[in-house]
Specification:
single chain; 335 residues; alpha+beta; 4-stranded mixed beta sheet; 6% strand; elongated
């Protein structure tokens, strides 16, 4: 509802401004407010996102095994297959929608994808593809503008001092204008904050639902193991960087990460509890990992619907060999 109201307001600005520009013979004073209204509508227009320039888009011909696995997981959880599949160099993965047509995008960060187990890969795909069907408000065509438009408006009206060394009248006018801008920007920001706070509660709920779909696809063991791995991203980054500089690929990344996790296994319960204490917030898009793992552990135990064999995982890694090597060289050159 909030997004519809915002979109209607911006459309009304554009239509009214356009009418003022053409309704009267030129020249006329209506041109100034008309141009201002059209300009404001352009600045406040909804942004529906675009493909990240760092995303390296893959084709089905280049990675048929990977695309086949993605479609298998999507079918298992009742989600649509992504329109675009790509990789980047982040220790992350994400699923989203871009453009007015809301093309579905899946990105797999190579350090993460190459380091996790076969079950973890299925769980990761289940979670990310689950965002296409879990009602996440950050990805909806009609809900996404609520996350950006009021914030843009608040920033637009933020007061900026423009009069320096002018007379008393000019300085007084500038002070009154900045006071009005300050009040308006704060009102817009508070409205934005309230709206985002409400929406982020739905976003956190969407993460729990994505975790449930992750367990449906990969089984509870793999899904909880994937969450535990997110508690040690620094160890993952260190292992990948060390092995990459030594000239090794994802097989060594996995073994190095497994050794690191085995050495810190006794600390896992503490790390889960610390995540709850440090990361619980109404303003976070994700719930704490400790709570997400607890939720899965307390649900009925699930066996995997999709099993990724080691042989198939090796074929997928072979398809991504060029991307892995490019990433390894980037790490090596970065020192």
């Amino acid at each position: 509802m909030a997004s519809l109201l915002l979109l209607t307001a911006v459309l009304a600005l554009a239509v009214t401004g356009g009418w003022l520009l053409v309704a009267f013979p030129f020249p006329n004073l209506a041109i100034l407010p008309g141009a201002a209204m059209v300009g404001l509508a352009i600045v406040l227009r909804p942004r529906f996102g675009r493909l990240d320039p760092d995303l390296e888009v893959l084709s089905r011909d280049r990675a048929p095994e990977l695309f086949g696995l993605i479609e298998e997981v999507a079918t298992a959880i009742g989600a649509p297959a992504p329109d675009v599949v790509g990789v980047d160099n982040s220790i992350n993965a994400y699923a989203g929608a871009v453009g007015l047509r809301r093309r579905k995008v899946l990105c797999l960060g190579l350090p993460l994808w190459g380091s996790i187990t076969t079950g973890g890969r299925v769980a990761l795909l289940g979670h990310e593809l689950g965002h296409f069907v879990n009602g996440d408000p950050r990805r909806g065509l009609l809900t996404q503008p609520a996350f950006t438009m009021l914030g843009s408006a608040a920033d637009l009206f933020r007061p900026v001092r423009t009069t320096v060394g002018a007379g008393l009248v000019e300085m007084l006018g500038d002070a009154i204008g900045r006071a009005f801008q300050w009040v308006l920007s704060r009102v817009l920001f508070v409205a934005y904050l309230l709206l985002v706070t409400l929406a982020l509660r739905d976003s956190q709920r969407a993460e729990y639902l994505a975790d449930e779909l992750s367990a449906r696809a990969a089984g509870t063991t793999a899904a909880t193991d994937l969450l535990d791995g997110q508690l040690a991203t620094e160890s993952l980054a260190l292992a990948v960087r060390r092995e990459s500089r030594a000239g090794h690929g994802p097989d060594r990344w996995r073994s190095a990460l497994a050794q690191s996790r085995e050495a810190s296994a006794d600390r896992l319960p503490l790390l889960r509890q610390l995540s709850i204490r440090d990361n619980a917030s109404l303003f976070a898009s994700h719930p704490p990992i400790g709570l997400r793992r607890r939720m899965l552990a307390e649900r009925p135990w699930r066996d995997p619907l999709v099993v990724l064999t080691e042989a198939r995982a090796e074929r997928i890694d072979a398809e991504l060999a060029r991307e892995y090597e490019r990433f390894r060289r980037t790490v090596e050159w970065s020192g």
